[in-house]
Amino acid sequence: MRDAPDWVKGGVLRRGLAFLIDLVVVMIVTQALAAVLFPLSNGALIDGSSFMTDCRPAQGRPATIEIPAGFRPTSESICTKSLLGQPTARLYTLSRQEAGSSVTTSLSYALSAEYQMTLAFDLSVLQWPLLALMRWLLEIRGVPSLGRHLLSLRVLPRWDEPVAAAEIRAALARRYILFALPGVAPLAMAILLFAALRSGAPLPNDLASILGFLGNLPLAMAVIAALYAIARGRDAFYDEAAGTTVLRLVNGAREVASEQPPGAETGISGDASRKAALSAGLRPIPWATLALAALLILVFIGELAETYVRSQSLGVTGVTIVLFGGVSSELAIQAGQWYRLVLAMFLHWSAAHLIGNVVILALAGWFLQPVLGRGWLLAIFLLGGLAGALGSILVNPAILIGAGASGAIMAVIAAGLVVSLRLADDARRLWLQAFCVAILLATFLAGGRLAAGELDHASHGGGALTGAMLGALILRSWDAGTRRPRWARPALAVALGLTALTFLSIPRAGFGDVALARLTIPPEQVPKTDAEWFARSAELVRQYPRDPRSHLAHAVAVGNDKAARERALTLVSRTQAALSPASLPEVEQNAFLVVGEARRKARDWEAARDLFTRASATTAPPMPAIYGWRAQTELALGLLDAALEDAEVQVRLQPSSTQALVDLAGIFDAMGRQRDAITRLDQALAMEPDNAGILRYRGWLAFFDGRPKKAIQDLERALTLKPEDAYAALWLHIVSARSGRGGRLASAAKGVDMTVWPAPIIQFYRGEIDRNVLRAATQSRDPITHGEQTCEANFYLGEWHLLENAKAEADPFIFYAATSCPKTFVEWAAARTERRLIER
User: Are strands 104-110 and 484-485 parallel, antiparallel or unpaired?
Assistant: First the structure.
């Protein structure tokens, strides 16, 4: 039997589990409180940390909810949090599934008990102070909390000699005051924000967010510092200051060696550790840091003044940011204004943006300037800002403007984290590391993308990576004697030199705003062919988003993706309006025509017709071709009357166009009006008597009009003018044979290229292949080509049977052609005519 219990140091896992158990107890308390107060306050008092959440699709959005610009939700729901069936919070949630990612971005708005948007105070901010209060009230009575009881943990004084109960209570009071203090900051900030908003104070959303972040920063630092110390087998900062420790009861022999005395760590004596802990905050004033902060504030005042002079607005606008040096790929790379890499780090989008950066910079400088010195601090700030701006323009879309000191600040913080490895293992090092880790985690775990008021992770990453590398360089330069880094002056000289180099771009590229024409595709980069335009469209949109041609190429390249096509066409109009408003109607008309023609070639008839209709509706001078192209799409859709109307308009606007007359003839042919079609072809041949294509078409129609002699004359002349015309050879053979003059394929097809379609049809007619081989020849990877060749193969198989006077055998093939061929094909109209003849 043992006379006294054995104790060992409580480890991080066991203490973490005890903490979670006690936190659950406190959460139940705040949720129970919210369950009572939620209906009484009409939703003004909530607890968002509920264990039970029920989300259901929203039937209608409350009118008072305003969605931020650019946020397009993919789902909307009403989520009710509850405890034992009693609501503790009700939220209207907007969710957006990020394209090409499993990440979902959500925005939530508190709802009252009557499902109306309301301002709510979240009682979950009470949980940290309540946890400290609960543990203190229990332990001053000698009773452990539930979590500590279950995991055999106790809080005990570290003194070797016995002490009075009053001293133990005083130590526990000091411990829990220090434990609770970091949690008081977010509570106080939440109360202030709630009171300000409740009173109607005009508090921008971004300012509320940044103040909330700064309020939570002490708690995050405290948690990280405590976890780090406990994980290393030491006491947390509040135990160290109060003279207490957390031990675990062990039955049997001791399992671990006794803890090293506080301060016995390598590199610093115990007495020096205590002195460092007491004087961690007593350090020289970081004047260089304060000068940087003051400069940021002065520049922001200048931004506000410029914006007010220009627009009588109190907020900073994008125009002001551009004028003052905001950076983007197109301004730095395309326009050549490299000085923006420097100036962008001194600009801010809003007061909230400035406050967040200035506070964090001041804290970073307070920790680090006494360690690094002003030379290295300024060098890291400048080089980190340059690297952050460079990362922003290389990663982000070319059109988006970056501004802010966060890239430079991330460099200082990352360098500080690396340099902390060289510092003595004392309180200053612990809190420096906790601060750096808290800021880095909060920054890189936050969502967002570059835009006014949003996060530029490319800038943060570029700055942090540069800062870490500079921190490693500082470790190499560390002077063990002075415990300070060397090479500060050379580092600052390099930073200032690189900064100055960027300003050499001003004489060539100018300062301030840039003419949009300079941001379009340079002549040497313009694609040479349509195929190259379409293949490079995504790259061109990314690099030259101000150029309407980039978006036009992309509108064609996206194919049948209607949403992407419409976005691209909208950007064509928007960029052209900014570039040259006077030519906007012509550019819009051309864009609709180009994309419409691409959709027509892809047999997307509905989309093509819509685009041609929009082209005709612009205020640009009318183009006859628009009506011709729309007529062809209407013919393909079977809208014959509409097609005829558009084709006649084209002929009226363009009476000298043989193609317009041929297209009109095709529509008459589709309507069964062969005589009208021949009349239009006569008119076309009067203008172009040697057009082989028109002669061939008139010959074919003359045959169906009952004039085989005229048909043969036209077809012979067409072959004389164009002996390689395979269709003229086929039609001459068919017309000659069916009119009793005998087949003529052997002589007619002498000039035909027998390696390409429709050579297999001629080979079948000659008896060189059977119908199975002919059908196999229609196989193509392109479904459009396959469909067209299958249509022709069936039509000419039907014609072959008609040559044999086998109408019954011909009918299925002719029927297929009449129902499956594109309506723009001559074979479709001919198949319909043949079916009428067969039925007679």
Answer: unpaired
Map tokens 């008459």 to a residue.
Answer: 668
3-class DSSP state of 215: helix
pLDDT of 261 > 50? The answer is no
Residue 26's pLDDT is 95
Q: How far is CA 74 from the centre of its chain?
A: 14
Residue pair 83/35 in contact (Cβ under 8 Å)? The answer is yes
Which tokens go with 42?
Answer: 């009409």
CA distances from 633 to 604, 785, 805 (A): 9, 18, 36
Mean pLDDT, the chain, rounded, equals 87
Contacts for 490-498 with beta carbons within 8 Å, 24 or more apart?
491/375, 491/376, 491/379, 492/375, 492/376, 492/378, 492/379, 494/379, 494/383, 495/378, 495/379, 495/382, 495/383, 496/382, 498/382, 498/383, 498/386
Long-range contact pairs involving 389-392 (C-beta distance under 8 Å, separation at least 24): 389/327, 389/332, 389/340, 389/341, 389/342, 389/344, 389/345, 389/459, 389/462, 390/341, 390/462, 391/458, 391/459, 391/461, 391/462, 391/463, 392/327, 392/328, 392/344, 392/450, 392/456, 392/458, 392/459, 392/462
Strand-pairing partners, residue 110, are 91
DSSP structure string for 314-366: SS--HHHHHHHT-B-HIIIIIS--TTHHHHGGG--SSHHHHHHHHHHHHHHHH
Question: What is the rounded end-to-end Cα distance, in angstroms, of the chain?
Answer: 118
Query: Measured between alpha carbons, how far is 808 from 793 in angstroms, rounded to an integer?
Result: 18
What's the pLDDT score for residue 74? Answer: 83
Please tell me the predicted confidence (pLDDT) of residue 251: 58
Please give the pLDDT value at position 302.
93
- What per-residue confidence (pLDDT) applies to 265? 36
Model confidence pLDDT, tens digit, residues 179-202 = 999 999 999 999 998 898 888 877
Rg (CA), the chain: 40
Predicted confidence (pLDDT) per residue in 711-735, tens digit: 999 999 999 999 999 999 999 999 9
Give the pLDDT score at 282: 46
d(CA 254, CA 249): 10
CA angle 221, 227, 229 (to 5 degrees): 100
CA distance 137 to 835: 99
Using the Cα atoms of residue 226, residue 228, residue 231 and residue 232 in order, give the sign of their dihedral: negative
Q: State the pLDDT at residue 197.
A: 85
Sequence-distant (≥ 6) Cβ neighbours of residue 552 within 8 angstroms: 568, 569, 572, 590, 591, 594, 595
Structure tokens at 519: 């941001």
Region 474-499 average pLDDT: 89
pLDDT over threshold 80, residue 359: yes
Which structure tokens are listed for 476?
Answer: 């190499």
Give Cβ neighbours of residue 500 (< 8 Å, ≥ 6 apart): none
Largest CA distance in the chain: 131
Closest CA to 697 of 766, 722, 812, 789: 722
DSSP state of 69: T
Looking at residue 160, its pLDDT comes to: 64
Q: Are 111 and 91 in contact (CB under 8 A)?
A: yes
Q: Return the structure tokens found at 342.
A: 């420097």
> Residue 110 in 3-state DSSP?
strand
Give pTM, 2 decimals.
0.69
Residue 328 Rama label (left phi>0; alpha psi -120 to 50; beta) = beta
Rounded CA-CA distance 155/140 in Å is 10
**Given pLDDT bands bounded at 50, 70 and 90, which one contains residue 274?**
very low
Name the strands in the sheet holding 6-9, side by side, starting at the edge strand that comes first in the sequence: 6-9, 244-250, 153-157
Q: Can you tell me the distance from the alpha carbon of 62 to that of 681, in angstroms, rounded to the nearest whole number? A: 64
